[in-house]
UniProtKB/TrEMBL annotation:
Domain spans labelled Methyltransferase small: 109-191
High-level lineage: Bacteria, Pseudomonadati, Bacteroidota, Cytophagia, Cytophagales
Protein residues bound to S-adenosyl-L-methionine: 117-121, 140, 183
PROSITE patterns according to UniProt: N6_MTASE
Name of the gene: prmC
Keyword Methyltransferase in record: yes
Protein name: Release factor glutamine methyltransferase
Length: 278
């Protein structure tokens, strides 16, 4: 018989893909979901042989590198839980920072907002719930991702209009936007070799990668579409690859945007670019 604390340490040591503190957090998350146990329950005694098969099966998936968010089918974002699947990116802290920036800078009522590449819908749903009477749209090329976004919007009681569209081939069906936001694919194909297996094997490559020879592919296209779709003085917000901040900034200046700024994330890495339509 072992207690909760020793089980966490034992299982964390088996998660060879992760640094120990992260491994312990993952095990604790799994135990809380299956058993209702948290770190405060350190002295609870457990028999490994009595643990439910569903917990043991999920731990085996974790050992193979599958992200815990996909194992559990949900991920936290801005204080809420969002359904995720293999067809969506897992919402990340950096994207929370992007959403927080938009909320902070735009206190007005009734803004019209479009998120391109919406995935789980975490950006437009959060903006609808946190802003005042916003009219919000989420667009994606993946019908499977849009189905997840729609479920999340229903569960969280957010009115988000979902649009199925390939922005590389089609024009935007809406205009007169106050805000256009996107966290588009931005990792060059050559970056695959540096990526953790739990991202590469389990998250949609469609939402991650761009050609090595054209890393600004989506930024350019979205910024061009934004010139038509945004109102005068309408705002464009991007999440970016940390290596391309200056490139994205110059691109927006070249296309006629004003007040273009690079904004670092909490770790000091270039992570967001914003600009205004003239």
């Amino acid at each position: 018989m072992i207690n909760y604390n020793s089980l966490v340490k034992k299982w964390a040591a088996e998660l060879e893909l992760y640094e120990l503190p992260e491994a312990q957090n993952l095990v604790e998350w799994l135990l809380e979901q299956h058993l209702g146990l948290r770190r405060v329950d350190m002295m609870n005694f457990l028999e490994e042989k009595d643990l439910p098969k569903s917990l043991l099966d999920d731990f085996e998936r974790l050992k193979k590198g599958e992200p815990i968010q996909q194992i559990l089918g949900k991920a936290p974002f801005y204080g809420r839980e969002f359904q995720v699947s293999r067809d969506t990116l897992i919402p990340r802290n950096e994207t929370e920072e992007l959403v927080h920036l938009i909320i902070k800078e735009n206190p007005q009522s009734g803004l019209k907002i479009l998120d391109i590449g919406t995935g789980t819908g975490c950006i437009p749903i959060t903006l609808f719930l946190e802003m005042n009477e916003a009219e919000v749209y989420g667009l994606d090329v993946s019908e499977s991702a849009l189905a997840i976004a729609h479920k999340n919007a229903e569960e969280l009681k957010a009115k988000v209009h979902c649009i199925h569209l390939d922005i590389l081939e089609e024009e935007l069906p809406i205009g007169d936007l106050d805000i256009l936001v996107s966290n588009p694919p931005y990792i060059p194909e050559k970056g695959k070799e540096k990526m953790h297996r739990n991202v590469l094997d389990f998250e949609p490559q469609l939402a991650l990668f761009v050609p090595d020879e054209n890393p600004l592919l989506f930024y350019r296209r979205i910024a061009i579409l934004g010139k038509k779709a945004l109102k005068p003085k309408g705002k464009l917000y991007f999440e970016i690859h940390e290596d391309y901040g200056k490139d994205v900034q110059n691109l927006l200046f070249d296309l006629g945007y004003s007040e273009v700024e690079i904004i670092p994330d909490l770790n000091g890495k270039d992570r967001m670019v914003k600009g205004k339509n003239l």
